[in-house]
Please model this.
Amino acid sequence: MVQRLIEKIQDTKAPVCVGLDPMLGYIPEQVLEKAFDEFGETLKGAAEAVWQFNRELVDATADLIPAVKPQIAMYEQFGLEGLKVYERTVRYCREKGLIVIGDVKRGDIGSTSAAYAAGHIGRVKVGGASFAGFDTDYITVNPYLGTDGVKPFVDACSEYDRGIFVLVKTSNPSSGEFQDCLIDGRPLYELVADKVAEWGSASMDGAYSNVGAVVGATYPEMSRALRKQMPRTYFLVPGYGAQGGAAEDLRHCFNEDGLGAIVNSSRGIIAAWKKEEYADFGAGRFGEAARQAVMDMIQDINRVL
Amino acid sequence: MVQRLIEKIQDTKAPVCVGLDPMLGYIPEQVLEKAFDEFGETLKGAAEAVWQFNRELVDATADLIPAVKPQIAMYEQFGLEGLKVYERTVRYCREKGLIVIGDVKRGDIGSTSAAYAAGHIGRVKVGGASFAGFDTDYITVNPYLGTDGVKPFVDACSEYDRGIFVLVKTSNPSSGEFQDCLIDGRPLYELVADKVAEWGSASMDGAYSNVGAVVGATYPEMSRALRKQMPRTYFLVPGYGAQGGAAEDLRHCFNEDGLGAIVNSSRGIIAAWKKEEYADFGAGRFGEAARQAVMDMIQDINRVL
Model:
């Protein structure tokens, strides 16, 4: 899987990923109004607005980028109607040739993780047949339960040529509360990183592993050390832009080969039309604003590589 | 919320919870066949089988128990069709007066956790209206991202009178890999426990907090220490029965008042009909086998309290 991701990144010259995290507050009034006119101010109406918003964003940016990362919580908040649109968005993006990283942060005891893996990156057996539920290329995984909670995801990577990004060091302000705790002088996230590298050795695809790591852009010194510690692990880097990470902070997430990381931006792209910088586009041309924001982000990141 | 849970536990004299984790392998042939006859060997067929299985289990046990704990992964593996049955199961159980603990183990950065909280234990705003998506009483939460990733769930507990159980020490074999790491001489799970107690103080309901903890039955010495460390925290205790935890191991999860813990069993109840002990019921009376297994479990646990 990771080789497909690398090819897409090289084709687009863009180690970036657009986070499809559609809060209703990011969706222009005209899109909301149309959806509410049709389905009322209901979960179905909200889901329809999200879908129309996503579709325009994807249409406006798909040729520029290798991947998208829908955050499933933003769909799950609308219950089943929202999850229908999550599935529809995943399908639409894959049809457009995009690699889809489902940001689901699942993780549980072994048998339960196996069920999550089947539903998101694998297939589930039903009698003599098998089916892919949400069918994303990659998902994010939480490591708190240890090896037996992660292994079923790694197995699915190998069996179905998919990938995962395991949370190592997250981008949020309180990520250090547990992740930075020192164990024999080393922070917990480094111990997790050791395990990620070990797990990843069971699912190599060329020079890199299908088992990647989430490493926040907001802690550049830590990502520098993690890059050295996990040379064959691809990084998914959240926190660029709206969360405070700058392009200079990202340099150390990449290897000498210019590979090794894909940087996500969500709000900075999908809500670009609300930023002063892109205000000229207006709410009516929110897709074009997102496109311009993607081009600016690519330039910003390539500048420091 | 926790007071409602305590009342239900006292009414039933049963500090137990049935895990509705319906793997297809647990469902008797006649239930599968009927569902496949109607909907084929499809995701919808599998979901229908799960629903019929759940309904009979709930009908057979609801008067004996305070709560059920559906594991959402077992539904999510069947994609949208599975999640429809998750929602239907939640609704059915709540109509029967059961407290429903959604075992979802969600957790992310603040804004994302807020979306999960809205979808599972809160309400989401759509225009001038608001809706509850999955509408469970409790959910389980993963603490790896720290305070800002957990706080939105705690806020929802207070606002909507709901509860959460935060993973502290899980029941699986490799739970110690990270959770037991020593930080200044104390294991990580104790640091998490400190935080759970602190978070919980913001959502008290009588003598206990709406913010509970997941503490596995499989590590009795640890649960003894955690019980002392978090006297006002309710424990959700997985791992009894099939995972290896015995009743004697559970004693220390309870406080002197006889309260403080609810013990879950999944496979041991819902697949009781497959165990030698309950073989006389046969596959046709799997509900009655589950009922007997619940009665035996209640007796087993009350024996040591």
